[in-house]
Amino acid sequence: MSITNPTGRETTPVTDASSDGADRAHRPHRPEGRSLQGAALTVFRAIPGPLIGLVAVMVALSFMSPFFLTQQNLTNIVSQNSDIGIMAVGACLVILIGGIDLSVGSTLALSLMTSAWLFRQQGLPFTLCVVAGLLVGALVGLVNGVLSTYGRIQPFVATLATMSAGAGLALWLTDGNPINGFPGWYLALAGNKIAGIPLQAFILVGTYLLAAFWLRFRPSGRALYAVGGNAEVARLSGLNVTRIKIGVYMVAGVLAAVAGTIVGSRLDSAQPTAGTADLLNVIAVVVIGGASLSGGSGNMLNTFIGLMIIGVLNNGMSLLNVSPNLQPVVIGAAIIVAVLTDRGSRARILQS
Amino acid sequence: MVEHPTDEGLVCRGLVKTYSGVSVLKSVDFHVRPGTVVGLIGENGAGKSTLSSVITGVVQRDGGEMLLDGRPYEPGSPSEALHAGVVLIHQEIRLLPDLSVAENIYLGRLPSRGGRIDRSRMHRDAAEVLGLLGVDLDPRRPVRGLSMARQQEIEIAKALSRNPAYVIFDEPSASLGETETEHVLERIQNLRSLNTGVVYISHRLDEVLEVSDEIVCLRDGARVAHWPSGDVARTELVNAMVGREFTYEHVAPQPSRADTVLEVRGLSSRGKFTDIDFTVAAGEVLGIAGLVGAGRTEVVRAIAGVDRPDTGEVLVDGQRLRPGSPQCAIKAGVVMVPEDRKGQGLNLNRTAAENLALPWEKSLSKLGMVTRRTIARLAAEQRERLDIRGDMHLPVKSMSGGNQQKVLIGKWLVRDPRVLIVDEPTRGVDVGAKMAIYEIIRGLAAQGLAVIVVSSELEEVLGLSHRVVVLARGQQQGVLTREEATPQRVMELAFAGSGDGPLPSEQPSAPLLQSADATSGV
Questions:
Q1: Which of residues 291-330 of A touch B (CB under 8 A)?
Q2: Each residue of B379-397: b (16+ CB within 10 Å) or e?
Q3: How many structural domains does chain A have?
Q4: Which domain holds residue B113?
Q5: ipTM greater than 0.95, yes or no?
Q6: Which residues of B touch A235 (CB under 8 A)?
Q7: Which of A66, B123, B406, B504 has a C-alpha 20 to 30 A away from that of A346?
Q8: For residue B70, what is the domain's CATH number?
Q9: Per the record, which residues fall in region Disordered (chain B) (predicted)?
Q10: What is the pTM of this model?
Q11: pLDDT in tens, B94-151
């Protein structure tokens, strides 16, 4: 650094002159000499709030059902929720920058139907069709991004429009009919296991790790917190806010398409209505994970825990024969509990 | 003045207030009589706001007693204080822009008749209150589009409509320019003539001197000085506030060097400013003076690439900057400390360290990764260099205004800039931090930076700058050297062209209405 401290000499007298105690009240008070208690508190605070909830639910369910805590059941929970989990990564990124993406479910359906339609009706090689599906996801994201930045349409409204249009196009492609009969290797995506763990669980966890790394270490990922926290500060700091926003919507679109690929493989069928019911679950995952819809806060670890809470609750209720009609009620309650406890713990941290 | 019995008015004796073990008020005595204005001064953290909060029932005292016209006065909440006739006017204006002036004045207690709002009575009453204050304003018009000074006047009218016996102003001028402040001060004179007791809290000593009948100074929660008249030398006030001898006069800056770093040629933006032309040399501090709404901030925003000007160009070392791109300006070494610290400068919920690193993350990354250690090292460097007090790894909002401002300045010094623009660099910071910031600015110029200072405080611009550009209604009125730039000369130019003639281009858009209002002398 070539500029040295310009204040050094000049400000010292200010501190000296006030050594009569005048300045003491301004200094932050740091607790000292309570290191053990302090350390325990720090560890306790470092535990993400949603994790405590997840452990509590899992402990309760393992007492209530003998089938819950088996390896088979736990891997099931992870793989059954891999599509929602992958979409939640995209949704979390969008929510981080202070946006919202209502079109995830429709994007899933549209990209899946595009892949299937190109394969069945146009006879293209299947790999190419999958790539085309991902491109469709990116395209929907691009439209969302451009509408909400250059078009200055609120993201809720912009993605509401693409949600409607995407769902319609998915139905229109095949007149509402499903498409079946895919290559064997594609079906293996959902069915195959490596070391007893389904391939789709690997894809799910890999997506989270990649996103977490991006958000934590890469300048472009870290920028999302700045954009979501205060877009004007970010812009004046030289970040290209428009490009970042559009990029995030495109990533969300591609991730929805990836989720579509998994759904198609799992069902061995491309349904034009696949994914359209997932939207609220996806947003619930992100919110239970503690992200704020006003942007700027949230992370991948907590989103993953949020996914597991929803997955475990649904799985547990099925094991306990709770009526499927009542299950959304419990999810609704979980959202409220998560948000209230999160707010409580935040207030405590601020106070200390 | 007539002799008053000692228990008349609002009397506080031995007030004590403690926040989590720290005494912020240590046995403070305070007395306001009806029909007088008491100026309350002190550095940030001296206890002024706490005192006003105790008096208006926002917080409860921990000791001492209060009497209102001889009777015990114990407000448990702001509304109890209101009922007793004690009103607080906040620093921040809190009006609802889409409601009318009258609705804002009577919000929460709209007069009604037969279950319906009695609009004619509301408008009549509002007009009467505004008339008492000498404010010429249609009570039916919405608040949106009115200048800050006008809005502050509505706040005063709102307070007055409750027929208060005592009004406490907590830095009403913080967001106002000099002429606008004049108007508020006149309103205070009106309140005094209505036999209201007024407490006036401000950082701007000239205002306090102008308006006060007596002045009280707090330091570290204790009353350290009291002057029974408003006729005091300002150095005496400053010395009492900081508790030591203080030379308030700015030190004469060093002469500037010859090589031009920044050149602004024919910069114009429709409805904001026209034909701005100047250069800044390495090591030079250029001041931009003018009334609020003269286009000062707009000009520097265009230079820093934040807004795109319509015509004209900005050159750094002879290279033309791409207009409207903060990225491009930052890359060329043109950085700006914006006037709105909270809205444009810092993300208050993130840590100081993260804020410092934000513009530079790409260049800080190794193998494409930014690590916590890199950021911590950077934060430690800036903390040391700018003498920032406070934890760099806590949210910036935990710091005092002065330290936040230092973080904001430090953010733009991480990579040595060529041109540093500071817009209102000492808004809302206390005297000590103010002096430190002046030293930082002088030090940076001495090291060869070209510096532009924009400020509403004339003294600040004149004290720091080698040359001063004066703007009035978006027009450059002249560039004065340090010798020419007397306060009289600058104000003369700043008022040139005000009051008559249209704006530089034909029609003002919405935000402009505000500045037009502000300059035309309301």
A1: 296-297
A2: bebbbebbbbbbbbeebbe
A3: 1
A4: 10-242
A5: no
A6: 306, 326
A7: B406
A8: 3.40.50.300
A9: 495-522
A10: 0.76
A11: 889 899 999 999 988 888 888 888 899 999 999 998 888 778 889 999 998 887 778 8
